[in-house]
């Protein structure tokens, strides 16, 4: 082997330094390690990382409007992992319990063999135990890491775009399609207890249904379907957020009925609003939702994420995933 070949071989292995003493080999080794890590990432993990990095950069540029402090991040993450988010409350509980159960079984099995039965260690038993402990957490972390910066970005967007929403334009499209404003017509015309209950519970309880869907796929060991479910959920937000920024839209009750920005509406819209007459129950629920959404300390900013509807995307996701699991679920 010539000197040149030996140098090329060493360079390939990351140990050959250039004459100018540059740190190239270390960079090469680091690059190879990063490539190896990235190659092992699942699609939902890659998407979750991107959905964490991009909002963090966006929040950096919006820092004057949204204070993204370490205390806020830590507090939000603690609340998130302690089941403070209704979307994942049930799912997190089962994942945590599953992880602890796998940890108990793995470590208990090793302890019994080593200290009770006095058996020699089995080849790879520690690695296998670590895998059993890590597997449940690997399902969890893609949902966990993106949540704080993404919802923080929504807060920042809602503050910055509070005067730039496209609600009047979108309502005009509704009128072209239906011939009226649905948010005015439906609550005023269909004052039926059963209909109201169906609509209210479909909207307010959907996050729990989404959480239950995660549990069903986890407990029935349909892990591939669960991973696809998680990926689709992340993708719905990845698609939705750019549209939220391009076409910001508030809840119609906030923009039109409460008129937080004191807008002057077209006469036809004002005439429809004057005819708004929902049942006391609908009025109460609408008021509760509006109160929860409103950020009083930030000039009464409300979410600008109503188009496209996240609830509609999540509902379609649940229906589709259960249909994949069992076509009979479509009956429900």
Report on this model:
The chain is elongated and about 85 Å long. It has helices at 3-12, 24-39, 43-61, 70-81, 89-116, 125-145, 147-160, 167-178, 182-189, 193-204, 206-219, 223-246, 252-257, 267-274, 280-293, 310-325. With 332 residues, the protein is an all-alpha fold. Helix content is 70%, strand content 0%.
Keywords:
332 residues; mainly alpha; 16 helices; single chain
What is the CA-CA span between the terminal residues? 72 Å
Q: Supply the helix-strand structural class.
A: mainly alpha
DSSP strand count: 0
Q: What string, H for helix and E for strand, traces the elements in order?
A: HHHHHHHHHHHHHHHH
Helical run tally: 16
Rg over CA atoms, rounded to whole Å, is: 26 Å
Mean pLDDT value: 80
Shape annotation: elongated
């Amino acid at each position: 082997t010539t000197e040149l070949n030996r140098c090329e071989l060493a360079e390939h292995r990351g140990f050959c330094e250039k004459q100018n003493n540059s740190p190239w080999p270390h960079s090469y080794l680091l690059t190879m390690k990063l490539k190896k890590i990235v190659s092992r990432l699942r699609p939902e993990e890659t998407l979750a990382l991107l959905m964490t990095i991009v909002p963090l950069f966006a929040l950096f540029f919006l820092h004057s409007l949204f204070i993204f402090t370490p205390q806020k991040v830590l507090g939000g993450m603690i609340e998130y992992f302690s089941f403070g988010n209704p979307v994942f409350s049930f799912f997190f509980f089962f994942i945590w319990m599953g992880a602890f159960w796998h940890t108990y079984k793995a470590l208990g099995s090793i302890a019994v063999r080593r200290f009770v039965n006095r058996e020699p260690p089995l080849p790879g038993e520690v690695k296998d135990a670590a895998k059993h402990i890590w597997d449940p957490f690997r399902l969890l972390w893609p949902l966990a890491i993106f949540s704080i910066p993404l919802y923080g970005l929504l807060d920042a967007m809602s503050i910055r775009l509070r005067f730039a929403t496209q609600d009047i334009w979108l309502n005009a499209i509704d009128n072209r399609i239906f011939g009226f404003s649905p948010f005015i017509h439906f609550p005023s015309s269909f004052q039926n207890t059963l209909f109201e209950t169906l609509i209210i519970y479909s909207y307010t309880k959907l996050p729990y249904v989404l959480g239950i869907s995660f549990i069903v796929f986890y407990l029935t060991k349909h892990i591939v379907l669960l991973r696809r479910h998680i990926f689709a959920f992340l993708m719905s937000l990845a698609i939705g957020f750019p549209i939220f920024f391009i076409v910001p839209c508030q809840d119609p009750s906030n923009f039109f009925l409460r008129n937080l920005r004191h807008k002057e509406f077209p006469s036809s819209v004002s005439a429809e609003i004057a005819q708004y007459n929902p049942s006391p129950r609908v009025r109460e629920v609408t008021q509760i939702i509006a109160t929860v959404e409103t950020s009083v300390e930030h000039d009464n900013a409300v979410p600008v994420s109503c188009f496209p509807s996240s609830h509609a995307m999540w509902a379609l996701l649940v229906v589709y995933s259960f249909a994949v699991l069992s076509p009979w679920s479509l009956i429900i």
